[in-house]
Write a structure and sequence with these properties.
The protein is of the alpha/beta class. The chain is about 30% helix and about 15% strand. The protein contains nine helices and eight strands. It has an eight-stranded parallel beta sheet. β6, α6 and β7 form a beta-alpha-beta unit. The radius of gyration is 18 Å and the shape is globular.
Length: about 325
Amino acid sequence: MPRPYAGPIIDAHHHLWDLRLGRHPWLAPDKAERGGLGSLDAIRRDYLPADYRRDIRGEPVVASVHVEAGWQAGDCLGETAWLDGLDKAGGVAARYVAHVPLASPEAETLIDRQAQHPRVVGIRDIVSWHPDPARSFAARGDMMDDPAWRRGLARLGHHGLCFDLLVQPHQLGDAARLAADFPDQLFVLDHCGSPIDRDEEGMALWRRGLAALARQPNTVIKISDLVAYDHGWTLQSLGAVIDACLEGFGAARAMFASDFPVACLHARPGDIFTSFKVLTAALSPDEQAALFLETARRVYRIGDASPAALPPR
C-alpha cells in the first residue's frame, strides 16, 4: 500500500523579504504582475523567518535554502548581509543561493566575495524570458549565449558553486546546450522548468524541453511551486507535472521545494506539502527520501541536515 513520506524534509527553495527596506522593487505597489504569476498583491507583505515557520508548522522541515529574491539591482551582496542578521533557528535559510549579475564586469569579484560566505552554495541570475513582458523575468532572451555572461558562469566552478536556472519552456533546449557546454558545472532547474502554457501544445513543448535537459547528467530539478502556472490546479494536474519531472530526472536528481511565499498566491501552505506527499506516495522509501531530503542535502551541501550542525558546509 502506498505510504506518504513522513521523514525529515529539506525545503530547497523559498524566499524572505522585509518590504520596509525598499530593496525589492518588483514587489512595489505600483508594479504590475511579473513572470505570469498573476496578481502579486497577496505577497506584497513582509515575509520573515517567523512567517516561514508559521507556514511550515507541523512539517518536519530540518533545513531550508533561501534563494535570491529580486533584491535591488547593484547590491547583491546586501541581500547576503541582510540574511545573516535574521533569526534562522530551526535551520531556516541554512544555505543561500545568492544573486550575481553574471554579465557584469564585476561578476568575478562578486562571485568570489559571495563564495567566501559559509552559507552561500549557489548563484542565481535569472534568464527566464518570454516575448510577452508580463511573462518575463529577464530583460533579454539571449543571456545564455552572451560571452560575458558565460565568462561569469565559468567562474562558479572555481568555488564549486551550483547554478540555479530559471527559464521558460521554449528556453529549455538552449539550457540543455548550455549544460553540455559546461559539463563540470552543476545546474539546478527551478520550478519544473516553468510549464506556463497549459494547453496541449504548450505542455508538449515543455515535456520535450524537459527531456532534453534531463539528458545532461550535470543537471538536477526542483519540483517546486507546482501551482505557479496552474491556478485552477487539481491533484491530477499537479501529478502529471511531477510524473514528467521524475520520468526525466529520477528521484536521485530531483528535490521538493515549497517556493514560499510565492506558492501561496495560488494554494494554502499546507496544501503544498500535503499534495506533494500524496502524489509521491507510490514511490519507494529510498526515492521519497531522495526527493524530500537527500538530493537537496547533497546539492546544497547541508551536512547531516541537523539544525545543531549548521551552518558549516
